[in-house]
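Re: the 118-residue chain
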Amino acid sequence: MSELVVPPPPVRLAPGLVPLYEEARVVADASPASASALLRLLLRAVLQELGRPGRNLTRDVAALVDAGAPVSLLRALDVIRMSEDQARHPGEIVLTDGHAEAQNLFMFVNLLVDQTPR
């Protein structure tokens, strides 16, 4: 089993969302698919806090970039290779999500929180 190196929650993450991040951290090694689903739900919640609808993660990130967020967010979104279905239904567990996918999602959450204005 691959052990993930997961950073602590971003300092700017809303306090109400920290437990979801921490839960994903706890389960990541044993079930990266579960951690990935939790992180997609967390992404939706972060996007909603940023004023986006949260119905499609990919479109919401693109809208943030259109509104002035760094283009690097779109490039990072390409790295996590979120399918259209995952973008629309973030809480679904995808059994093929492995440690690499979970690691990339953790990094994307941190990037999104750190690089978007509040």
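Helices lie at 18-27, 32-49, 57-66, 72-80, 84-88, 99-115.
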